[in-house]
Structures are given as structure tokens and as C-alpha cells.
Task: inverse folding
């Protein structure tokens, strides 16, 4: 990849041979350099994390695209983005030690933009994984990746937000202001303990805004990896409805008795929702133990359940409270 380099002109450093201190008007020579002070605080933390995690960050290359990835197991399992591997079945994987391997794409889930790659090694340096459900807004966030081909670039910021959505599919995202650029996709977002909290996936175009980067929570990536390694497929639960998130405007327009939740627009024939008695026009406010205020809440609640689970759907039907028992169905992605 060709890099654009700006060469500053007009300012030059004058190299001085040892023992030949320059003199100006009879002045004294410069004092000798002092020993470097030890690093402290955040600076020491970032340096330590960089040394610890950088060996686990890889470059992923395929015809027509490139990005980053992070090794999560010593036997060569790598997490990256689905859009980094595209439709490829194999990719080239460059390690921090300069070696390159052919990686096999075990599978991908475009709905959350996660892919799993494996390289034929048994002692790869693996990054530790955090519990992304415990991430909090304001905590330190460190990104490592290969932006524009500058390998293993480190940037630092904070977690700016949680449960962010981009479009209809990418939801539950971690928002960060750590600098993320093209090529960072698939690389790790880390906490102050050097644990992976997310897989960097997207940015808002810089001509619109800066400091708006997003990562898939690592708990989602870990679940996909475990399924692909153990079964070779991804299984997820589904309900079988089309719906609309209720806003205050929609509630006023439709004269709804509530201004939160989701309203069922269509129940697909032969689905778990149909079998469980869910009807068009139902307002769903709770699914099992999860309160449903937004469409993201509903998708998140279903994603946290397994095919075959029986869950109670609660809400409002024709102005009255209702509850229905639904056995969730299964969607398989290969």
C-alpha cells in the first residue's frame, strides 16, 4: 500500500560529533542528558498494554481488501470483522514477528460483522478477553490495528457510549473516541487491564464528524467463535415478527396508551410468534426478564436466548395487559 508522507522543509537538525560541543559567543556547552524518568500513570499503563497485546494483533489480507484481527487462542483462533474477510474462504495473516500464514475462514456473521479465522499454529500469543457486559462509559479505551497499512498503530481514548446502533443490523456497539481509521477494522479495543472489550468495526465518515468509532462487544464475538469452533455453524433464536419501535410521536399519532416498547406490524406465518399467539398490533414491553423500550432491546434480548427456550412475552393488546408463552425458533448460519 502506498502511504502519503509529508516532508517538512525549512527546519534541519544539526548533528554534533561527540566531544565537540558547539559554542555561541563563548557560552557554556549544553548540560549532559539526564537519565530518563520512569513512566507513571496512564502513560505507563498504555506502554505496558502495548507490549502485552501487540504480539496478538495481526494483519489480514485478501484480494481487494485488508484489515486487522486479534488472536484469542493459542491454537491460532483469530477474531476479525466479516467485512474484512468478505466472501473469502482463505486469507493471508501477517503476525507481529514478521511471519505470514494462510488462514482458514471458519465462518462469519454479517449481521454483527464478526468473522473467525484460524491459522495452523499451536503457540500463538493470545490476547485476554474481558466481559463486555461490565464495560462502563468513561473508562479508558485503547485501539490497536493497521490503519492505512501502518501496522500495529496504538491510539487511546475513552468509551464514549454503549448500546449504539448503526443502521438496522449493527447494534449494541461500543462507541469510542480512540482514533480508528480504515484498516483498523477487526482489531481489538482494549481496557486498562489490556483485555479485549470489543472488535473495532466502523467509524462515522471524517468529513461529517471525528472521534466517533464503534466496536462490536467481545461477548458477541466470543459466542460466535465458540459456536463455529464446536459445531461449524452459528445458531440463533428468532421470534418471527416485523415491528416498529414506539416513539412519543408514533404514540401520539396512533393514540397508544404507552410511549415505549415496540408495536407488532406483522406476525409471520408458521413462526414461534404465531404459534405463541402474538398478534398484529400487540405492543411488547417485556421479553422474559428484559424490559423492551427500543428495537435494540428486543434484538438484544432474543440474542441472549437460545433456540428452543420458552420465554414469556408481555405487553398491551387492545388497551389491556397480556402475556404469551413463546418457544423460540432457530436460524442457522453456515
Result:
Amino acid at each position: 500500500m502506498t502511504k502519503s508522507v509529508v516532508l517538512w522543509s525549512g527546519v534541519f537538525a544539526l548533528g554534533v560529533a561527540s566531544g565537540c560541543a558547539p559554542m555561541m559567543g563563548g557560552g557554556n556547552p549544553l548540560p549532559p542528558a539526564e537519565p530518563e524518568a520512569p513512566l507513571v500513570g496512564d502513560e505507563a499503563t498504555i506502554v505496558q498494554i502495548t507490549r502485552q497485546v501487540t504480539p496478538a494483533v495481526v494483519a489480514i489480507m485478501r484480494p481487494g481488501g485488508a484489515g486487522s484481527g486479534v488472536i484469542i487462542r493459542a491454537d491460532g483462533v483469530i477474531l476479525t470483522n466479516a467485512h474484512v474477510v468478505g466472501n473469502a474462504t482463505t486469507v493471508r495473516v501477517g503476525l507481529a514477528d514478521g511471519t505470514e500464514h494462510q488462514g482458514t475462514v471458519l465462518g462469519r456473521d454479517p449481521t454483527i460483522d464478526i468473522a473467525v479465522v484460524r491459522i495452523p499454529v499451536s503457540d500463538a500469543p493470545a490476547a485476554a478477553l474481558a466481559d463486555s457486559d461490565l464495560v462502563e462509559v468513561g473508562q479508558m479505551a485503547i485501539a490497536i490495528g493497521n490503519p492505512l497499512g501502518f501496522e500495529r498503530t496504538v491510539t487511546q481514548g475513552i468509551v464514549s457510549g454503549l448500546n449504539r446502533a448503526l443502521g438496522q443490523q449493527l447494534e449494541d456497539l461500543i462507541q469510542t473516541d480512540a482514533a480508528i481509521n480504515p484498516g483498523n477494522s477487526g482489531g481489538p479495543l482494549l481496557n486498562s487491564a489490556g483485555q479485549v472489550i470489543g472488535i473495532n468495526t466502523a467509524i462515522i465518515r471524517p468529513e461529517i464528524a471525528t472521534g466517533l468509532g464503534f466496536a462490536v462487544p467481545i461477548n458477541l464475538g466470543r459466542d460466535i467463535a465458540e459456536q463455529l469452533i464446536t459445531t461449524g455453524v452459528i445458531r440463533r433464536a428468532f421470534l418471527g415478527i416485523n415491528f416498529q419501535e414506539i416513539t412519543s410521536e408514533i404514540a401520539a399519532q396512533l393514540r397508544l396508551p404507552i410511549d415505549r416498547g415496540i408495536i407488532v406490524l406483522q406476525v409471520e406465518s408458521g413462526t414461534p410468534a404465531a404459534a405463541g399467539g402474538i398478534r398484529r398490533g400487540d405492543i411488547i414491553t417485556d421479553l422474559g426478564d428484559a424490559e423492551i423500550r427500543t428495537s435494540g432491546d428486543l434484538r438484544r434480548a432474543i440474542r441472549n436466548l437460545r433456540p428452543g427456550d420458552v420465554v414469556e412475552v408481555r405487553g398491551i393488546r387492545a388497551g389491556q395487559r397480556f402475556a404469551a408463552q413463546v418457544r423460540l425458533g432457530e436460524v442457522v448460519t453456515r
In short: The two ends are 33 Å apart (CA to CA).
